[in-house]
Model the fold of this input.
Amino acid sequence: MTTEDHQKFRRLLDRAQQLRPTPTAVAHPCDPASIESAVEAAKLRVIEPILVGPSDKIRQAATDAGVDISPFHLVDAEHSHDAARKAVALVREGKAEAVMKGSLHTDELMAAVVARDTGLRTARRISHCFIMDVPGHADALVITDAAVNIAPTLKDKVSIVQNAIDLVHAMGVTDVRVAILSAMETVNPDVPSTIEAAALCKMADRGQITGAVLDGPLALDNAISPEAARIKNIASPVAGRANVLVVPDLEAGNMLAKSLSFLAGADAAGIVLGARVPVVLTSRADALLTRLASCAVAALVAEDRRRRLGGTIQ
Done:
């Protein structure tokens, strides 16, 4: 490991530490990894955790992890489903500005988030972003959607793209360059993703998607490699320089993100957007720094929402 490793994630943490800690409902932190993540993020003053779950299990997890949870508010819940519901309720009550997944299934947490009457829905489609710290690549790469929307429609992709653009702005990047990926860089009526890519770009031209420059369809190589874009004679502000990669569907996104992780040694922070507050999705297999980076991203998004809404989260 060199001094260059993880610098993109460390910059996100540094930026988040300039803000006040974000009150965060941590749903069912009942294993050492999830309780450690919450406590370490609190030590860095990135989040202010509210621990939601069976009290005895949370205390046992803290003992197993060797961490002190006495400074934090604990909300008792019967089980993981109840913890998810109560974590979401804390947001609706104005007591939390982010939600963080603990040791429960993602589906359990997201079911509470998207519940029609008691959840955190907005007019936007909910979507997931991976923020990839790829060794040797100058900028963080955002990949969307690789975890929530299985086969998004063109309408869904408008929200998916806008969610990612808003995320990158919240991360402090002003020059957002979005590549709409397909298997080729030309519009082919036999390949629906190329037609949708062209439509999204035209929607951006008409102001239906804002805050970024879009180009597509682009193949992965000419989206991120200036040399590949040059060889293909693709002249655009995005080709070869994309910092947001919009994939055709969940399968493509999942394979792209995991390829970068397992073949290129990348780390992947994860966040769900489009709800009233950011939702941190971490895996127990993630390195601690990756889990902390996910918390940092949520804090940055929460601050951006406060700024847009005049200091409130409603």
